[in-house]
Each structure stands twice: as structure tokens, then as C-alpha cells.
Amino acid sequence: MSLRLDPDDLxxxxxxxxxxxxxxxxxxxxxxxxxxxxxxxxxxDLNTAGTEDTPQRFIRAMFDATxxxxxxxKLLTAFETECRGEPDCRLSQVVEGPIxxxxxxxxxxxxxxxxxxxxxxxxxxxxxxxxxxxxxxxFAKRFTVQERIGxxxxxxxxxxxQPHGVAVYLDAHHLCTQMRGVRETxxxxxxxxxxxAYANDPELRSEFLAICGVxx
Length: 216
Prior knowledge:
It contains seven helices and eight strands; from the N terminus they run βααββββαβαβαβαα. The chain is elongated and about 70 Å long. The protein is an alpha+beta fold. The two termini are 39 Å apart.
């Protein structure tokens, strides 16, 4: 049996509630003009067949890449657990991954991309597996930082399901360190987040990280 979550019980205004963004066309035209001025000043010739529409495409691409701010109403449904109170319920993990994601760093508006693994130990409710992918991409498709994505995923899952534990592992390549600054060639940033049983049980953490393919 499915359970329809009550948006009033969670901070869905900043998490998963659907709220379509609207930017008037005249404002979009204005933004395209600003971008055209910047790109031209930096050296791009906008008077070719391939580049004349680049400012417009850039603005549209940025809008699409940040659609996570609109939320996702499909995340509002959970289901009763299949565990039925068995003794091993508190140890049975559900792990989804790798989940590819792309995000824009809020510091430089340059992309970072990587993989996410999300695990939880159900209590009274479970969530559809595809929803875990939706949850990752909901928070990734914003101006953000890697640490915040993991924190938002774990906070939202905990609030939605009240599970025995939640774990999130992210690894990502950040173009802000590859295209500028120190210009590292193969940087990989890893972050982990633990809640509940995972925070208290090193064996559960080890099992989760082994599933993620992480040596520790």
C-alpha cells in the first residue's frame, strides 16, 4: 500500500515540492544580451552561423541545468516496508548506485560531475528505487557544492521515511580545479554522510562502502 506524504510535514518548499519557475521572455532576451556582451569581450566572434545564437543557447542550457529548484512531485509517495518486523530488519540495506549526476558549482558556475550511492535501512516505509535517482538529481541540478548535495539527500530521506539509518557516498570531478586554479588533471573529491545505524555501526559502513567499490 502506498503512502502519500504530507508536504506540510516536511520542508518541501525548499526540497521536493513542485513549483515551476517562470522567467518572462523579455527578461530572457535581456539576459542573452548580457551574455553576448561578455562572450564578445572575452573573444568569441558572435557573427558566425555557429555562434550567433550561442548566448540564447547558453541561457537556455543554464535554465535546464538548474531545474532541480522546481522540485519533483513524484518524490511524495512512499510504501509500507516489506520487512514485517523480522530481526534482521535493522541490518538490511537498500543501496542504489552508481547514480550519475551533473551539477554547477556555486563558486564559479562551472560543472562538476560524478556518481552517487544512496543506502538506507527501512523502518516502516520504503521508497521506489527510481525515486533515489530522482532525489540525487533533484539536488544536483542546482547551483550547489558536493557537500550540500549529500547533506540534502540524507536529510530528505530521513524526514521522508524515518528509517533506521541512511548513508550517502559521492565522488565527483570538479572542472573548477581542472580548467582553472591549480589545474589538476585527475582530481576526485569523495564525500560520505552517515545517519542513524550507519553512524553507530562500523560494520554497516564497511558493507556500504564495499558495495560502492570504495577501499577503506
